[in-house]
Design goal:
Length: 352
């Protein structure tokens, strides 16, 4: 829904297995560059636009959008009435589709569509998560970067369910020493790293299918208490939010059409403030299934009333459905990282 941010969308692992349709009619104006990558490669399967600009006008640009897509062998098409297509998806719901540069037989293409996998019931996390742990140090990009490296004040373990790298940048910019671990890392392995905080990231697919992660999150909430220790602060984003909800006993369901784009209004029930958010999810935590004794609703979507945020009533665990790390904006939700850091600092005081 915006003119910029298309490179971040294309390289967001949450789009694994999906064709992206842009509703902003003019795409590609600012080109592409290495600094705006959100992951190691393009994860979107295909790209659809009304008009793709052949000219890139930005001092940070290194190649045009067309060059960016061709070099990575991503099928794309423009001159499509995306307004009509968006209305069709809105009325009919998200559906499977196909782009082809080699086969133009409609019947064969329809057969391929019908033979492709459904999103519901698919564990796509295992296809996008990292293969081994690694450390991250790079901060957020700024026009005038500081030469002083921020002193590490807290250690955060990030569970990679298909993370956007700007989550890591936001943590690093706030003095976090960041270690990323694969999605199937056990709770014991994570706790053995002695973290001050744990981040549950975004990612693709059906959250209910990622059963190993749900069990790990349950263990992360329970094991410190069983050992007579303080609970470690835990922050979930998007898929991480859904997995936390499932770990706490709630249910998830597939939306008719997902929340996508950078202009979704969300109300913070704890402050009464409205924030404009970036969203990208096709599943949602069922409000009515939340265990009210343990979970407090903190954020709701003002378009359809769906759950956008929650926190545990007794443990330092909270999550949001949208993306506070949104690179390119809006930045209304950056305060959530500061809230996470505050919880970590409280934990550090009690731990010591």
């Amino acid at each position: 829904t915006s003119m910029t941010g298309y490179q971040e969308i294309l390289t967001d692992p949450s789009y694994q297995g999906q064709i992206v349709v842009m509703t902003e009619p003019h795409i590609g104006n600012v080109g592409a560059n290495k600094g705006d990558m959100e992951s190691r490669k393009v994860f979107a399967e295909g790209f659809v636009a009304r008009e793709a600009s052949q000219v890139a006008s930005n001092w940070r640009s290194e190649e045009t959008l067309q060059q960016f897509l061709i070099s990575r062998k991503i099928p794309a098409i423009d001159q499509i009435d995306t307004r009509s297509l968006t209305k069709h998806l809105r009325d009919s719901g998200v559906m499977r589709g196909v782009l082809s540069t080699v086969d133009f037989d409609v019947d064969r293409l329809l057969s391929k569509i019908r033979g492709s996998r459904e999103m519901e019931g698919s564990d796509l996390v295992k296809e996008v998560t990292c293969s081994k742990p690694y450390d991250w140090e790079d901060p957020e990009w700024t026009l005038s970067p500081s030469l002083d490296k921020k002193k590490v004040q807290q250690k955060v373990i990030v569970m990679d369910f298909g993370l956007k790298q700007n989550i890591l940048r936001c943590l690093s910019s706030r003095g976090c020493g960041v270690t990323v671990v694969p999605a199937k890392t056990s709770a014991k392995e994570i706790l053995d790293l002695n973290p001050d905080g744990i981040m549950l990231t975004n990612g693709p697919g059906d959250p209910a299918a990622v059963t190993y992660a749900i069990q790990t999150i349950r263990d992360l909430l329970r094991l410190p208490l069983d050992q007579g220790k303080k609970s470690i602060p835990l922050f979930g984003i998007c898929l991480g939010h859904q997995l936390l909800g499932l770990a706490l006993g709630a249910k998830t369901y597939k939306l008719k059409f997902g929340h996508r784009g950078c202009n979704h209004p969300v109300k913070d029930l704890t402050t009464g403030k409205i924030e404009i958010t970036t969203q990208n999810h096709g599943f949602c935590v069922d409000l009515d299934s939340l265990p009210a004794k343990d979970v407090e609703i903190t954020h709701v979507n003002l378009n359809d009333g769906t759950l956008e945020g929650m926190r545990h009533r007794r443990l330092p665990a909270f999550s949001v459905q949208y993306h506070p790390e949104s690179s390119g904006g809006p930045h209304d939700s950056r305060y959530l990282f500061d809230r996470f850091i505050s919880q970590i600092q409280e934990y550090q005081k009690k731990k010591n």
